[in-house]
Amino acid sequence: MARDGSVVPADPGAMAVVKKKTQSARSWILFDTTGQGSLLDVDKYAIMHRVQIHARDLRILDPLLSYPSTILGREKAIVLNLEHIKAIITAEEVLLRDPTDENVIPVVEELHRRLPRLSAGLQQHDLGGQNDAEAADEDESPFEFRALEVALEAICSFLGARTTELEMAAYPALDELTSKISSRNLDRVRKLKSAMTRLTARVQKVRDEIEQLLDDDDDMADLYLSRKVGSSSPVSGSGAANWFAASPTIGSKISRASRASLATIRLDENDVEELEMLLEAYFSEIDHTLNKLTTVRAIFVYVCVCVNMCNREQ
């Protein structure tokens, strides 16, 4: 949407070549339920009016301000700040900030691919032969959860990749230090240890935010935006439960027994089991990343202590 109010279609596959000269606090991309993106160039008041959130919530997404990772449920929106992923999710739209950022482009592409409902995708690509009942179940998936899953998967993968990079640099650096104690090797290890401490804090914050949601059913219930729209909510009924079992990412993380029992669930206004399963899957993933960082950091501390003791003895 340009300043004159017109909509500018966006091709996620071509996002990498979009210049950043308009990429300021005004740059957004909007996705609808078909997965189609439109570039927006609007001020904060237009965003607040569109998604009906307060200025204090929008400030959380300001790239010029430093806010910790946060997932907030509001009356008609989810405000999502996960590192570089800054988004507002409603029951029918996703507004994603800074879409041409190199770390955000993969999220743009995933939203474009995964937001459309399965039945629409099958018609578009003429993929016949699928079971109609399964397609109908997938079609019941709540829009806001598909968007939330993309964001959680992206941030967990991003932080996991940063952890792996540090691991690959850490062990050779420790080997060199133990074989030859020098100021150069010590400086390298100290820098890696500092980087690991900073990354651990970032991973810990994402983990804590997911855990906080899991610990509070009311907070999870606030994220059921489709349910709030009315009784015809996509979340009502067993179709949403079947979607979680059929989801390509979540389905692989849930045991067969859990999926079987989930398929029988009938939702009511207080039932948050679908979202709970979604959050638990990514909590497990980010917790594993945190454990890896904690282990490597403990090795660093041990080696540094040993090196200091050797230096004293010499």
Describe this structure in words.
Residues 1-8, 12-25, 121-128, 132-139, 231-246 and 251-267 have low confidence and may be disordered. The chain has helices spanning 44-51, 55-59, 105-114, 118-125, 132-139, 143-179, 183-214, 217-221, 225-229, 239-246, 256-262, 273-313; strands at 8-10, 27-31, 37-41, 70-73, 78-82, 85-89, 94-97. The longest helix is centred in the C-terminal third of the chain and has 41 residues, at 273-313. It is an alpha+beta fold and 314 residues long. It has a 7-stranded antiparallel beta sheet. The chain is elongated and about 70 Å long. It has 2 domains: 1-116, Lipocalin (Beta Barrel); 142-314, Up-down Bundle (Methane Monooxygenase Hydroxylase, Chain G, domain 1), CATH 1.20.58. The protein has 12 helices and 7 strands.
